[in-house]
Every structure is written in structure tokens, then in C-alpha cells.
Amino acid sequence: MTGIPLVKSHAFGNDFVLVDEQALAPSLDRPSFARAVCERHRGLGADGLVIFREQPAGGATFDLLNADGSHSELSGNGVRCLAAWLVGRRADGEPSRRSVDIFTEAGVKRLDLIEREGGRFTFRASMGQPAEIARRSLEVHGRPLDVVTLRVGNPQCVVLGEVTEPRLHLLGAALAVHPHFPEGTNVELAMVEAPDLVRILIWERGVGPTEASGTGACAAAVAAMQYGGAARDVQVVAPGGAQRVEWTAEGLFLTGWAEVIAEARWLRATGAE
Predict the structure, then answer these.
(1) CA distance 273 to 69
(2) Prediction pTM value
(3) Three-class SS of residue 40?
(4) 20 to 30 Å CA-CA from 147: which of 18, 27, 28, 243?
């Protein structure tokens, strides 16, 4: 059978299609291909397309295109999905190879395998230090809105307070393309329900509402820790489930699972929409 080999994976419902860069023709229109593959009804359906290349010493490079074909620097759940695919193909009982280095535009992310249960892999990922953390007021729908902006490898905007679907659609869509963010931004509504518990809803740049986000969980945790009274070790609960975020002197650490659910081949005309 001809076609392009693809892998479908997800972490807490935040789903990705993985493809080895070597399977793609150099002339391929990658944004068009990403839109076609990620389309929910005429493609495989995903929040993003991960293009990777395995490295001789282990690990892999990571390039992410959102569902709309736009570029993204990083995805915490995306790197975990790729790590699950890589580790799942290794022989069991190789403790020296239970760590995976994923090379992203935002630096090398090391993922340490904590547990494997069937096809589900739990990793603790080193996400680096958050940067450019600031409180600011932005005008949204003609009114000032207090937000926390920062980078966790990609741009983030966190709104502390009420977490509801109508508010997400009202604020998320507007903030994601706000003039303050020339590259666009990911948006989280976040509420501190207890010192060790933060609840969020997510509007991802180039995607829209998603069930989970690794970098979004990190960003919401940092905002909640810095300005909302949360502890430095929290569970961040999104519609898809809870991920653990720790903020230590060494940086942010994100713990959660991913699972590989299918292997397939793309048979449509390459890049067709």
C-alpha cells in the first residue's frame, strides 16, 4: 500500500498526528497538508501535526503545525505524544533509555518515563523556566481586562477568575488574536480552587478550544502561583483531565500521560483540501 505513514496519539484529549519528516516530499506544502490531515471530518482529525526526525543518539526533532496550518514553537502534550511513540517502539527493560530528549524550537525537552500501563505512558517533562511574566491590562470588547502574559516556550495569556465556557468563547477568541500579541497567543481561563488545585479552560492559538494543553497548564500554574496564591506544586484540571505542574529552582516540570491509538496511511492526494 502506498501513502504517507501517520500515527495518531493524544494526551488528555489533546490530539496530534505524527509523521516522520523523511516520509514527506521536499516540495510538500506542509501547512496545507496539516490542515487536510487535522480536519475532523475529511482527515484524521487532530489539534496539530507533529513532524519529527529521529536522532542517531535517541530522541527526535519536533516541528508543530496547528490545525489551521500555522506554526507553533512548542506543545507540552505534543512532545509527550511523540515521546510515547518513540518509547513504545523500544524494547522493555531498558532503564538507560527511559528518558527521551525532544529537540524543539523552544529548546531541548527531556521527558522521563515514570510509568507504562498498556499503551499509556506517563512522563515527567522538563519544560524550562517561564519567561517574560507580567501583569497587564488589555482592552477586550471595549473594556479593560486584567491578564497575565508570559512565555513557556510559546506565548501565553492567562485570565484569573471565573472559568466558564461562555467566558472562554467571549475572551479566548479575542485574546488569541489581540494586537498585543503579533504572533497570536494561547489563552487560559484559570481559577485557584485550592492551594494545590487550579481549574482551567483553554483556547489554543490556531485551534480554538481544546480539552487539554501541556504548555497551557504550565502557564496557568505559573500565573496562579505568582498572583493567585497557589502552591508551587499543583494539579491543573482541564476538561480532559489533570496534569501536575511543579515550579522549582530548576524550572517547570509537567507530569501527565499520553497514548498512541492508531497507525494509518494517508492516501489522499498530498496536501489536498
Answers:
(1) 12
(2) 0.93
(3) coil
(4) 243
CA 201 to chain centre: 14
Label the pairing between strands 60-66 and 99-104. Answer: parallel
Q: Using CA atoms, how far apart are residues 14 and 11, in angstroms rounded to an integer?
A: 5
Structure confidence by residue, pLDDT tens digits, 150-209: 999 999 999 999 999 999 999 999 999 999 999 999 999 999 999 999 999 999 999 999
Which residues, listed in sequence order, are joined to residue 106 by a DSSP beta bridge? none
Q: Domains for the chain: give ranges and CATH numbers.
A: 4-127+258-266 (3.10.310.10), 131-251 (3.10.310.10)
Name the amino acid, one letter, at 261: I
Q: Give the residue carrying C-alpha cell 531498558.
A: 94
Cα dihedral 158, 162, 164, 169, rounded to 10, equals: -50
